[in-house]
Design goal:
Length: 124
Amino acid sequence: MSIPHTKRICQIIKLKPESVEEYKEVHRNVWPGVLSALGRHHITDYSINHYPPLQLLIATFKYTGNDFERDMKAIGEDEETQRWWKLTDGMQESFNEGAEGSGKEIPWWKDVEEVFRFEGALHP
């Protein structure tokens, strides 16, 4: 049995300018089944931020499981999550050439490399 560890993920995607208000509105009321799927598959501390000058959505979350690929696949197979993606994917544009939507072969979100982290250790 492997011990869970925390993995931090940051991803970006473009938000279509004509979809800003609708995107924000649906995310004020994320469907409980979608949130449940995230929780069942070890996703915590999930946030999405919007940077209007570049129409970027910047998502960050923590993964606390021990098989990231398996859990991401399971989220993608969840029926409610698939319906959610059908609703929200049309509001976004991927940076990844050939991407057709969430849960497809070519990733929809672009992973962002972390180059610095400060955990808040105290120094005298």
